[in-house]
Design a protein that fits this description.
The structure is a single chain. By secondary structure, the protein is an alpha/beta fold. It folds into 3 domains: 144 residues, 3-Layer(aba) Sandwich (Rossmann fold); 48 residues, no CATH class; 44 residues, no CATH class. It contains 14 helices and 6 strands. A 6-stranded mixed β-sheet has the order 3-2-1-4-5-6, sandwiched between helices. It binds zinc ion (ZN). The site of zinc ion has 6 residues, from loops.
Length: 254
């Protein structure tokens, strides 16, 4: 069970890595609600998160989050103590602190952080932001939520656009799609190839067209055709492949 859980997390991480530029060490922005739940279920965030990600992680928070936790007083003192242990990233609200949710909302613009929160309202908000990873605690268990429908759709759209305009290596994109478990429709994978196949016969069809106006350009063929017309008759006329030695005989007869 545990291994399956780690694998799932790895798959989700690689989705964000490949499509939204997330890189190791992963920065986990943690709020006080997450710390409070960790405290209730007595898990160590510092131990469990890197273990769950199986990667280097940096646990961060903001001054706004710390100040809000402090303002709630003794009832969340334990959570406040935990959140204070993390690296404090600048959020730009140093002069006028915001509440934790507003602060986090302002921190997600550049897709830099995995947001670790138990706040349902904030989670719902984050799900509407393409490429925004969310994690929470399910009792004792850390869970990196699978990419939202919107994130997946955004990636699909980007890939399709790339196919349309040919701006990226198709094979690479299809490989990424497959590795991320995104279904690759045959239509997505092959439109260009099909077009190429259609383009190849074009020169042949050009030759056919040349026949009518270009009789002077191909006098040998024209003469053979005219002979065939006379002998076979127009209605029953079929294309017959004339061997070169017969062609020569026909030419000399003329
Ligand atoms: Zn802030």
């Amino acid at each position: 069970m545990k291994i399956a859980r780690y694998k799932k997390a790895q798959k989700t991480l690689s989705f964000y890595r490949n499509n939204f530029g997330f890189r190791e060490p992963y920065q986990i922005l943690i709020d006080a609600t997450f710390c409070q739940t960790a405290l209730i279920f007595q898990i160590s965030i510092k131990d469990q998160i890197p273990k769950y990600f199986q990667a280097e992680t940096i646990l961060v928070t903001t001054q706004c989050i710390i100040l809000e936790a402090e303002s709630l007083g003794a009832k969340v003192q334990g959570a406040t103590n935990i959140v204070k242990q993390f690296l404090v990233h600048k959020c730009g609200h140093e002069k006028a602190p915001k509440n934790g949710i507003a602060c986090i909302k302002s921190m997600i613009k550049n897709n830099r952080y995995v947001i670790a929160t138990q706040d349902r309202e904030l989670q719902d908000y984050l799900r509407k932001k393409p490429g925004q990873p969310i994690m929470y605690l399910h009792k004792k268990t850390p869970v990196l939520e699978q990419p939202s429908e919107l994130s997946r759709k955004t990636v699909e759209f980007k890939l399709n656009e790339s196919f349309k305009f040919g701006t990226a290596d198709e094979k690479k994109l299809v490989a990424i799609k497959k590795s991320e478990g995104i279904p690759v429709a045959e239509r997505d994978a092959q439109p260009k190839l099909k077009k190429k196949k259609k383009k190849q016969p074009n020169p042949l069809s050009c030759k056919k067209k040349k026949k009518k106006p270009g009789s002077s350009a191909a006098p040998k063929k024209a003469s053979i055709d005219s002979i065939q017309d006379k002998t076979i008759g127009k209605k029953k006329r079929k294309r017959v492949k004339v061997p070169t030695h017969i062609k020569e005989i026909l030419q000399s007869d003329k």
